Amino acid sequence: MKNQNRRTFIKNSIITGSAMALNNPFSMLGNSGSQSLKEIQIKKVDSNFEREPLIRPFGFKGGYMSEIWQTVSYLESSSGNHQIGLCTQNVLWSDANVFSTNSEAAGNTLMYAVTEYAQKLIKGQTFKDPVSLLDDTLPEVYAYAKKVTSNPNLRKTFALNALVGVDNALWLLYAHENGFRTFDDMIPEMYKPCLSYRHDNAAAIPLMAYNIPINEISEAVDQGYFFMKIKIGQPGTQGEMLEKDKARLSAIHKAIGNVRTKYSKNGKLPYYFDANGRYEKKETLMRLLDHAKKIGAFDQISVIEEPFNEALEIDVSDIPVRLAADESAHTDVDAIKRIEMGYKAIALKAIAKTLSMTIKIAQEAHNRNIPCFCADLTVNPILIEWNKNVAARLKSFPGMNNLGLIESNGHQNYKNWKEMMSYHPHNNGSWVKAKNGVYSLGNDFYKKSGGIFDRSPHYEKMFLGR
């Protein structure tokens, strides 16, 4: 293994593009005055995984998880360089049907099988950039995923989730082989507009699942958290769900509704609700909003994420709050469709849909002046940094004062979180842990890109001697 400190890097050239090159920004890199990207051949692949138990069952989409698998993809190029990419699997989020029709372990095994298939598929292939390789590979990987899960209607996000570790390893290989030293260097010129900001802070968004007591939500506010993700769409019939959600909203607003923050333009705590597609009719959601008006909470609703099942294809342009698309925006094409249906925000998940797909989605949203933020998948500490690199560079969310938004709830849910933190190559970095509800993103963070380019001994040793 080569020591990263001895790597030789070359300066990334500024590349000018055109609208014609938007779908393939790498097509112009061979022009005079620009750096020519290297052809990288994938010579060897390997993988492994760890099962991380949760503190308590994690509930959403009407189901509960008890553990989360962390899969690890190893890719080695013909030049002898190797890189490792991480993936946090979430079968319940990516396709609730697969989760409900299999045991929890079986569902995770199926997703891991898709990752293995993808690695075998790209072994021996040559690529110049991760985005193009993902575009070429995704259809076949998705077809295999439908076959192995026996689900012809499998959500594409299931395949993308399985590809995260592979895609991250490809990006790291791509950066190393071409001498890109930072996240900014690595991002293709045609995707830079959507990632052109450089915030000093990013709001750390904790997740409050169904079974999080109200007093813990209040404690989080006391600790400085001000932008929290609240799960709605609780188990039961639509009527039962609505009543539970109304009661939950009332209890939350009573507990924290009068708290003030310097980070929002109106000084109030913004409410961020995530329904994970549980609402079946627009009228049901409107009844929840009517309740919010009745108790004085309506003006604090900053965003409601994924209220309806994507199959319903409900036009939401007349709903009087900002709705965000999350899992329904599988790809850039899907994101455009959601925007046309009236969705006014996109929840980006570089840690769940691959960085390659995420920057395509982010650019399409940017082109249409649709704000984005970064949602979590209860990922491990290193994957948080991949998400943070995106969140740090997005335009500020409406109603907020110049900062990025990144959900990170691993510390709330993993039983072995402290040990997982030790796997981070810069676990004592100033940007790693949130303080008073925000991540501090100074020059050190941008210089080191959150540490994503540095090797983690814990994951490296999984493949020693193979």
What attributes characterize this protein structure?
16 helices, four-stranded antiparallel β-sheet, 2 domains, Enolase-like, domain 1, alpha/beta, 14 strands, 466 residues
User: Would you identify the CATH H-level superfamily of the largest domain?
Assistant: Enolase-like C-terminal domain
CATH domain class name of the largest domain: Alpha Beta
Task: Give, in order, the helices and strands.
Answer: EEEHHHEHHHEEHEHEHEEHEHEHEHHEHH
- Distance from N terminus to C terminus (CA atoms, Å) equals 13 Å
Number of helices: 16
Number of strands: 14
Q: Summarize model confidence as the mean pLDDT.
A: 91
User: What's the architecture of the largest domain in CATH terms?
Assistant: Alpha-Beta Barrel
Radius of gyration: 21 Å
Q: Which shape, going by the Cα principal axes?
A: globular
Largest sheet: 7 strands, parallel
Which class of secondary structure composition applies to the elements? alpha/beta
Q: What is the CATH topology descriptor of the largest domain?
A: TIM Barrel
Assess the beta-strand content as a share of residues: 15-25%
How many domains, as an integer?
A: 2
Parts with pLDDT < 50 across at least 5 consecutive residues: 1-34
Q: Enumerate the strands of the largest sheet in spatial order, edge to edge or round the barrel.
A: 6-7-8-9-10-11-12
Q: How would you describe what is shown here?
A:
This protein is an alpha/beta fold and 466 residues long. The chain has 2 domains: 36-184, Enolase-like, N-terminal domain (Enolase-like, domain 1); 189-463, Enolase-like C-terminal domain (TIM Barrel), CATH 3.20.20.120. 36% of the residues lie in helices and 18% in strands. It has helices at residues 91-94, 96-100, 104-122, 130-148, 156-178, 183-186, 214-222, 238-256, 282-294, 332-340, 355-367, 381-391, 410-413, 417-421, 443-448, 457-460, and strands at 40-60, 63-77, 82-88, 126-127, 201-205, 207-208, 228-231, 271-274, 301-305, 323-325, 345-348, 372-374, 404-407, 438-440. Strands 6-7-8-9-10-11-12 form a 7-stranded parallel sheet. Strands 3-2-1-4 form a 4-stranded antiparallel sheet. Strand 8 (271-274), helix 9 and strand 9 form a beta-alpha-beta unit. Helix 3 packs across helix 5 (156-178), helix 7 runs parallel beside helix 8 and helix 10 packs parallel to helix 11 (355-367). It is globular, with a radius of gyration of 21 Å. The two termini are 13 Å apart.
